[in-house]
Automatic annotation (TrEMBL):
Keyword Transport among record annotations: yes
CC terms in the record's Gene Ontology section: plasma membrane
UniProt-listed InterPro entries: ABC_AA/LPS_Transport (IPR051120), ABC_transporter-like_ATP-bd (IPR003439), ABC_transptr_urea_ATP-bd_UrtD (IPR017781), BCA_ABC_TP_C (IPR032823), P-loop_NTPase (IPR027417)
Gene Ontology MF, one: ATP binding
Entries under PANTHER family matching the protein: CONSERVED COMPONENT OF ABC TRANSPORTER FOR NATURAL AMINO ACIDS-RELATED, HIGH-AFFINITY BRANCHED-CHAIN AMINO ACID TRANSPORT ATP-BINDING PROTEIN
PROSITE patterns in alphabetical order: ABC_TRANSPORTER_2
Keyword Oxidoreductase among UniProt keywords: no
A Pfam family this chain is assigned to: ABC_tran
Gene that this sequence comes from: urtD
Annotated protein name in UniProt: Urea ABC transporter ATP-binding protein UrtD
UniProt organism field: Paracoccus caeni
Lineage: Bacteria, Pseudomonadati, Pseudomonadota, Alphaproteobacteria, Rhodobacterales
Amino acid sequence: MSALLEVDSVSVSFDGFKAINNLSFNIGAVELRAVIGPNGAGKTTFMDIVTGKTKPDAGRVLWGEDSRSLLKMNEAQIARAGVGRKFQRPTVFEDQSVSANLTMALKANRGPFGVLFWRPSATSAARVAELAEEVGLSEQIDRKAGELSHGQKQWLEIGMLLAQEPRLLLVDEPAAGMTLAEREQTTTLLRRLAETRAVVVVEHDMDFVRRLECKVTVLHQGSVLAEGSLDHVTRNPDVIEVYLGR
Ligand SMILES: Nc1ncnc2c1ncn2[C@@H]1O[C@H](COP(=O)(O)OP(=O)(O)OP(=O)(O)O)[C@@H](O)[C@H]1O
């Protein structure tokens, strides 16, 4: 498996506290990965480092076939290189329709000059319809985003990220606040998206992680504590101790 993202010996401290401690792991180009770990394990900081929000004190973060350093790029350059991040709370334009939200996301993909001369076209309308279909919102395409359920808003935001054609999608706690039916649809969606790209899901909900049926990386104190199938890592005595306490 060739790595799309290689995190190598990365450390970062905040006021002397090592939030990420010699962290190393790889994500393949076509892969679904769950990252789990107790509160404060470093999951958010890991995503902040990959997206350029936080610069580590040591280590390397390499990207793509030519192993470019993400640490030399700013947040916008990293996003353009193909890293999309879905935050926990949806940030869609509530007063705009699903199709207008997706159209704006397509437009944002053009860069400053592209945006200046951009006009909606038949091609962009077709792409908007395709994106809505991809995230299961075809029937909601003319509804205002503010009228959607929490789960549907999350899917819309995923659709907006897909407009940017990311090669790696980082998804932070997608199951939070969703109904059971929405969670099931979300696992199906994430599994499908990971058939053609890398998707990394940070999640606390173990039932949700189980349904993803993917490799799991357990973080603890800023390092990888265990890695493998969910059954494999949950049998690991170190993982049991960290989760169930001493
Ligand atoms: N900007 C910061 N300044 C100081 N400390 C920070 C900062 N960001 C994170 N930390 C600390 O680093 C550690 C790792 O935090 P992080 O948010 O990455 O953990 P997490 O695994 O995402 O936790 P949670 O599951 O609670 O979201 C925590 O102890 C946190 O308090």
